[in-house]
Each structure stands twice: as structure tokens, then as C-alpha cells.
Amino acid sequence: MKYSVREGPHGMHVPDLTMVDVNCLDDVMELMEMSHANRSTAKTNMNEHSSRSHLILSCYMVSTNKHSGEVSRGKLHLIDLAGSERLSKSGATGVAMKEAQNINKSLSALGDVIAARGSGSSHIPFRNSTLTLLLQDSLSSNSKTLMFVCASPVMYNVEESFCSLNFAERARKVELGKAFKNIKK
Fold this sequence. Notes:
Largest sheet: 3 strands, antiparallel
Number of domains: 1
CATH topology: Kinesin
Helix content: 25-40%
Number of strands: 7
Strand order of the largest sheet: 5-6-7
CATH superfamily: Kinesin motor domain
CATH architecture: 3-Layer(aba) Sandwich
Number of helices: 5
CATH class: Alpha Beta
Order of helices and strands: EEHEEEEHHHHE
């Protein structure tokens, strides 16, 4: 199924996705288990349980100050980016190869956005992928972004680890500016 990203009154979102109210950690963990069970994985030469897509858990918070009536809104994306794999090393073919190409394309687009933000470019290519368009709010001036990068300690994966660490270094240098409260009176 193909989803599109749209801009709404509270920023970028994907229309028609199911939103579920959660009240405790157990609710969140149940949704995470459900999403993990539905996530596409495939065996490759590099990873026995290689994820074939990015996984995004988006949390939308709305808070009303009981004294002033101010409404604050926030958005938190927790994202597991599928790793970049060299097709020659992974041995992926058929559908898995197409998935790897799409993953690599969206990671490249994310790298382009990070590079444009890092250089202070007036044009940020958010529209080059669904991933970067959805994350436009999170990669713009009114946000905070934190990235963890997993690197393999195995010498066989040194090239991939080196690329991942270079990507993280570029991302670390990007200044998004000061985030402010999103309040409606």
C-alpha cells in the first residue's frame, strides 16, 4: 500500500493511518510488538533478519493547561532506519533487492537533507523521499533531533560502519536552531 504525506494544521502527517490512544507503557509496548510482527524482514548474506523497511512510531501529544487554557502540541518520531546494504555483499535478489534499493534511496535523500541543512542551503530537498517529507517538521528549525547509529564491530563490515559513522558525523554538525513551545491560546 502506498501512503502519501500531507501538510496539515499541525505539520506533516500521513492521512488515513490508524491513530491509537495510549495511556501507559504497556499500551505502547503492545503496539510496538504488533508493528514488529508486521514488519517485512528477509535473510540476506549480511543479516539473517534484515529489515526491509524503515519503522516509524509517531507519538502526538496534546496538553491543556488547566489554569490558562493554553493548548500545547508536540510530536515525537521514534524511527528505526533500515540499514544501507551493498547489493553485492547482501546477495539480495528479486523483491529483497528492490526493497534494498528503496531503502538506500531514502537514506541517500536523508543524507541530502542533512547536507543541505549543514551547509545552510536555502533549498532543503525534503520532497525527494517520503521519509524526508514526513520528517520535515523534525528536521526544521522548531525541533530537536537525536540520532543513534549502530556500527558493526566485525572487520568484514568495516566499509558499512565507516559510512554509518561518516553519516552520523555529518548529522551531528547540523544546527536546527532553538525549539519553542507550540502553544495555541
